[in-house]
Amino acid sequence: IVLEIKAVSTLIDEHRAQLLNYLNATGCELGLLVNFGHDPGLEYERLVTGEQEVDDVYL
Predict the structure, then answer these.
(1) Could you write out the DSSP letters of every residue in 2-59?
(2) Is 37 part of a structural domain of the chain?
(3) What's the pLDDT score for residue 59?
(4) CA angle at residue 9 from 8 to 12, to 5 degrees?
(5) Would 24 be classed as within a structural domain?
(6) Chain segment 7-24, per-residue pLDDT in tens
(7) 22, 50 in Cβ contact below 8 A?
(8) How many domains does the chain have?
(9) Domain that holds residue 44
(10) Alpha-carbon torsion (9, 13, 14, 17), positive or negative
């Protein structure tokens, strides 16, 4: 798993692209993009690449 932590007002496509690049570079298939700057509270997204089935991944 690759965990990308941000502190921005909202997640944008560039943040997702950066996580995808990290996943491709490491060969990992699961990434979490976590944003602590979102108001109110926490914002997160899960990114799954490769042949892994979504039902096989729990968060």
Answers:
(1) EEEEE-SSS--HHHHHHHHHHHHHHT-SEEEEEESS-SSS-EEEEEE-TT--GGG---
(2) yes
(3) 55
(4) 75
(5) yes
(6) 999 999 999 999 999 999
(7) no
(8) 1
(9) 2-50
(10) positive
